[in-house]
Amino acid sequence: MINQKINKLFCLLLNKSLVDLYNNLLPVEFVNDEDGVFLTCFLKDKVISSNDFGKIKKQIQKNIDRNYSITYKNIKLSEAKEIFKNNKYKLDFLNSLKSENVGVAVIGDNEYIDFCEDLKLSKFNVIKAFELFNVSGSYWKANASNEQLTAITAVAFESKSELEEFIKILNERKERDHRKIGKDLELFTFDKNIGQGLPIWLHNGTVIKREIEKFIFDLLFQYDFNIVSTPVLGTKQLYETSGHWNHYRENMFPAIKVDEETFVLRPMTCPHHLTVYKTKKHSYKELPFRIGELAILHRYEASGGLIGLERVRQMYLIDTHVLVTPEQITSEIKRCYSIIKTALETFGIHIHSVSLSLHDPKDKEKFFDDKQMWANSEKQLQSALDELNIKYEKMVGDAAFYGPKIDFQAKTVLGKIITVSTIQLDFLLPNRFELKYHAKDGTEMTPVLVHLGSIGTLERFISILLEQTKGILPLWLAPNQVQLILVNDSLKEYGDEIYNGLKKNNIRVWYDLSEERLSKKIRNGQIKKVPYQLIIGENEKQKKTVSFRKYGSQDSKEISLQEFVSLLKDQILSKK
Prior knowledge:
Strand content: 25-35%
Shape: flat
Mean pLDDT: 88
Oligomer: single chain
Low-confidence stretches: none
């Protein structure tokens, strides 16, 4: 929907307009995506706020009306450095270039020059509609240790009708943003005193998390997984053995030295699970060896990349691993896919795409250098996908350092493609940990490792779940399954009877005894998307019944408490 050329042109226009208004402004960069232009700039003694938007928009329109000519040139890097010598951010960009030339756009008679490819657009007047949305802070290079710049989000179109349609879609996306839903439903929060990227799960969010955990563990039980619990720390030596210390260290928290040992907050559990496998000898008859746990992991993310639950620094992962013989690889991959398929269908998660992440044979630093291993493992995964008749896209260079993987991707409300579930094949780690099993002929063989992330981290999975459902969760998963509302305080005794009856049957009930008016209580239940509202009046008390209304419906129904409990239990059991 977003015309990239128009928005790149608009960024030039916005940059020039800001410079016209604020002489001490240093335009820095812009990013074009599905949501429009993201522009960052630096002002030495002026902070732009949304209150300045009226003035900025007037200046933008003036520059459109002035009918400037726009010419595009390729200039030498040395010339560009001279032009932008007073803009340290653009000089930083130029110093990172390996080419000898850079593309620029010249506005008018050298009145303004900025980086830009040749857009084949010679006038600003092709822009017929634009909007500035918000201002925020943005650290230079997404690093909190750098200066914080001003970031403006904006968009432009060739017609007013396109802008109106875009704003309508944007409003819909805001309603689906898991951060807004999480706040409305009181699921999670963050606090700077605890730390960036460290979610605080509130009661309602913890309920959802617990129900998901229970479902996945019950599913894994059906697929013969053994559940263990291992430490949140591992020694540096453990991760040197696995190879993560050399290939994944930038995503790990700094090491912690205690006495004579150096520890690392674990970013994954595979080294721990392989250590569990080594606690005893194994025969081929015991394979596949399936192991899993609910693990607390820590991964370093730049502060600028933290987005609600989607990208955090501490996460919960129901991490599972399977050790197999080479002959069992394809059947086990299919079995893992069956787990993923069941989980995603139960939660109603829509998958945007599936990718087969392969190694880049030219990159000897990122990927373990073993041609035969890569050829074998990539062939096995591709064959399994083909046999399952799953459409996929090959992504060269996206594999883990130890092996290829199948990634099941979802699309966020911000338009990002992120991984939900994954199956990874690994011939490397079993060798590094010297894992063995006794083959049928009595010889010692090395097993193959299959990494399975059935739903990914709980944080990311819940963010996707909230966005795809708008927070309207099925009864079995909803943190509050019933909201109990009394018409007046004189009904408290009967209300207590209903409350206790629901609790006795393990129904999660929100007994709303607040001082709010009846209409406000009903409204609050709708905002929190409670599946059922019970409204108890004198009539219900006399007849020993309950009147309930389902979320999204205006119709009420009156039945006995026992019938209502049976109705809920049937729905919970069926996961509807």
